């Protein structure tokens, strides 16, 4: 999915689907807000899981995330991932 024309809601929905799959949950995307922590009571994205999420984001959105991503502040919420996709797609 190229992100150039995707609105935030579409990007957020896809990111939510990715983190739900990584957390091995069977819930709807509507149960997750952008404020939801990636490693919290609902989602269970481990450090290795975060790497898998980032790779899936690159694949699904056709973007290349910055190489220095891990030297910066890591994404902690679903919204952080959405912001990352939108910044990278510009």
Topology of this structure?
Elements: H1 8-22, H2 47-61, H3 78-89
Helix pairs in contact: 1-2, 1-3
Task: Please tell me about this protein's structure.
The chain has 90 residues and is mainly α. The chain is built from 3 helices and no strands. It has helices at residues 8-22, 47-61, 78-89. The chain is globular, with a radius of gyration of 12 Å. The chain starts with 7 loop residues before the first helix and ends with a helix. The mean pLDDT is 90.
List the keywords.
47% helix; mainly alpha; 90 residues
Give the gist of this structure.
Helices cover 47% and strands 0% of the residues. The chain contains 3 helices and no strands. It has helices at residues 8-22, 47-61, 78-89.
Write the element-wise H/E pattern from the N-terminal end onward: HHH
**Portion in helices:** 40-55%
- Strand segment count: 0
State the secondary-structure class: mainly alpha
Shape verdict? globular
Number of DSSP helices? 3
What ranges have pLDDT less than 50 throughout 5 or more consecutive residues? none
What separation lies between the terminal Cα atoms? 14 Å
């Amino acid at each position: 999915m190229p992100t150039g024309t995707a609105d935030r809601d579409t990007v957020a929905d896809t990111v939510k689907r990715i983190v739900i799959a990584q957390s091995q949950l069977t819930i709807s995307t509507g149960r997750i807000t952008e404020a939801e922590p990636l490693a919290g009571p609902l989602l269970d994205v481990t450090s290795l899981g975060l790497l898998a999420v980032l790779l899936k984001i690159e694949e699904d959105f056709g973007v290349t995330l910055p190489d220095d991503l891990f030297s910066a502040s890591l994404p902690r919420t679903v919204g952080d991932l959405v912001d990352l996709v939108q910044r990278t797609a510009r």
